[in-house]
Amino acid sequence: MSDQIQFIVEKLNQEPFRKNYNLITFDSLGSMQLLQLLSDVLGEIDPKHAVDIREELPEKTAKRMLSLLGILKYKPPGSVSDLSAFRQGLVTGSKPVIHPLLHWLLQRTNELKKRAYLARFLVKLEVPAEFLHDDTVADINKQYEELMEAFKNLHKECEQLKTSGLSTAEIRRDIDAMEEEKDQLIKRVERLKKRVETVQNHPRILEIARQLRVEKEREESLAQQKQEQKNQLFHAEQRLQRAQLQLKEMLHAVADSKPESLMKKLEEEINFNTYLVTEKIPRELESKKNSTYILQKVAAEPAMSQSDLNVLESKINEVNAQMNQLIEKRMMKYEPADSKFSMYRQQASIMSRKKEAKAEQLQAAKEELSSVEKQMQQKTSQAHELEGSEVLKGDELKHYVNKLRSKSTFYKKKRLEVAEITAEYGILQRTEELLKQRHEAIQQQLQAIEDKKGISGYSYTQEELERVSAVKSEMDEMKGRTLDNMSEMVKKLNSMVAEKKASLAPVIRELRQLRQKCQELTQECDEKKIQYNSCAAGLESNRSALEQEVKGLLEECVQEESNYHYINCMKRNLEIQLQRAKEEMKAYVSSDPQERRKAIREQYTRMILEQENLGKKLREKQKVVRENHGPNMKQIKMWQDFEQLMQCKRECFLKQQNQTAIGQVIQEGGKDRLVL
Q1: Does residue 66 lie within any of the structural domains?
Q2: Which one-letter DSSP state was computed for residue 130?
Q3: Is residue 128 within a helix (H) or strand (E), and if so which, with residue range?
Q4: N or C terminus of the chain with fewer C-beta within 10 Å?
Q5: What's the rounded mean pLDDT across residues 316-325?
């Protein structure tokens, strides 16, 4: 158990919690503090759970924690295997329940973060069966399941890419190798330039070589154009053959067709177009509008930089520290002090050690400051000796710093714009891929519909005709460049067209007779169509009236349901507020002082008094510091002058000792000489 608590304390003292606990302070935490600590750990795993438990009901807190623990697949240990006992311990903040839970969460934080992230998208929302009978709800549910499967596949691909991707070390090695190759190529080009400069008339030779390279490139482009024109001619001949075959098939189909079959085909085509106009296209348009609204909403949200996030984190840490201090003061004030003397002594010793450490740090900082000032003086003197520019000071330095800050903010803004453009480019690429996939699917559907309607190859023929027209326009643009080749090609095509006209002359005669029959059938079809339109208009008016009536009734039903739910919610909120007001009134009126202390009014009154007393103390301290600031600064200056004076005395004393030692040595040497 002690190892478990030691592990919990170590993890809580690290990032991102930074609680600064020890074994004694952690063991002395109350039930509410343990529950808040558990909520903070769960909030680190899932940001939605980063809430203050004092602002929500205990039942809601327990329900929220149990739902997340269910998603994280937490199993209580053997001592609390009973689920009801575990829930009760979680509500009351029992240590035997909270400590193993914290140990389990802190052991596998990264794994649980990933599981909570996936749960946001993979926990399926159960829709009641009676709602699935609605086509709109069923389509949305189906789309929801498809998106969930797509998310699973994308997440798997992302994990595979993370595990199988190149490491940064390999990329850096590749970059270094490419930079070396670049340097080698630059050196090689410089050597070649030096060699060429020794040759006579080298500018003219370089110009001739450049013209030769341009002509070779032009020759290659002309050869490529010639090959493309040959391919286009071959494809045009093939399309002409296919068009002739289709013409024969259509003539054969018209010869064998009857008015009943034509009317049936027309009715099928009308039904299909009606379905497209009334159902499919409006549904797709609505989905596009929804997706556009969501994307606009996402794009309108302001982007936050890393500096903004760091500022928010620092503010959060400061507020948490202040909260912990207030909680400790409250515990010290309202809990019995006799049983806490040992803890207070330990805290006092800890504070004394911290104070000593801070004093040492202050001394080291002062020494470092003095050394830096000396170095600055030396550098300033060197700059004056070298007749350089003076070092910026005072307002000039502030102006320069402000200028740098403005440039830095401008750079950060541009970097954010570049990041936004990059993100938008990625979104557009993905949109292009999706549109291509959808285009392929629509092409397949169109092919299937053409096969079903008996006009297979219609869209392909239309595309081929459009391509032929595009090729013709390109050929018209290229006439000025390759006039001779195009004239020969036109002659060949004219001869081919004349031959085709001669071969198609009997077919055209038959086609004229068929056109007369087609005109008669068209008149009869128009009469039938007028009758059909009149009948359809009457039925459509009746249907629209019924649809409007049904729509009005449905809207009225939905409005009544929403009013009913709104009234129920308001009633529930009022009941809860009334219950809380009754409990507060009961606690405030109660004669028991312990019960009155639980009242919110009393708690806030005590907190206001504590803050006022704290403010008074701080103002008194501020006043004392202001009064003693001038004398203290004078005293510091006197001590610094005294230190310099003692340093000078020490140097003079050392010099005097050196001189006396040298004189003694000289006297001893003279005596020795006299003796000799």
Answers
A1: yes
A2: T
A3: none
A4: C
A5: 84
CA 199 to chain centre: 60
Record the pTM.
0.28
CB 474 within 8 A of CB 463: no
Of 627, 653, 669, the position where a domain reaches its end is: 627
Q: What is the DSSP string of 278-297?
A: IIIHHHHHHHHHHHHHHHHH
Coil, helix or strand at residue 158? helix
User: How far is CA 481 from its chain centroid?
Assistant: 53
- 152: which 2 tokens? 């699973």
Contacts of 457 (CB under 8 A, 6+ apart): 246, 450
- 383, 390 Cβ separation under 8 angstroms: yes
Burial of 255-283, coded b for 16+ CB within 10 Å and e otherwise, reads: eeeeeeeebeeeeeeeeeeeeeeeeeeee
- CATH number (domain holding residue 60): 1.10.418.70
Rounded to whole angstroms, the Cα distance separating 229 from 486 reads 10
Percent of the chain with pLDDT over 70: 79
In this structure, is residue 432 part of a structural domain?
Answer: no
* 438-490 tens-digit pLDDT: 888 887 887 777 777 766 666 666 676 677 667 666 766 665 565 566 556 66
Enumerate residues 6+ apart whose C-beta is below 8 A from 43.
Answer: 49, 50, 51
Three-state DSSP class for 594? Answer: helix
Can you give the residue range of the structural domain that contains 29? 1-123
With tokens 């701080």, the residue in question is 618
Out of 123, 142, 176, a domain closes at: 123
Residue 548 · residue 556 · CB < 8 Å: no
Structural domain count of the chain = 2
**H or E, element range at 189:** helix 168-197
Count of helices and strands (H, E) across the chain: 19, 0
- The number of residues in the chain equals 676
CB half-sphere exposure, 401, CA atoms < 13 A: 7
Query: Residue 307 is encoded by which pair of tokens?
Result: 């500096």
Q: Which amino acid is at 475?
A: M
pLDDT, tens only, 592-620: 777 766 677 777 888 899 999 999 999 99
Q: CA 385 to CA 432: how far, in whole Å?
A: 66
DSSP 3-state of 649:
helix
Distance CA 97, CA 79 (A): 9
Print the SS3 string covering 343-401.
HHHHHHHHHHHHHHHHHHHHHHHHHHHHHHHHHHHHHHHHHHHCCCCCCCCHHHHHHHH
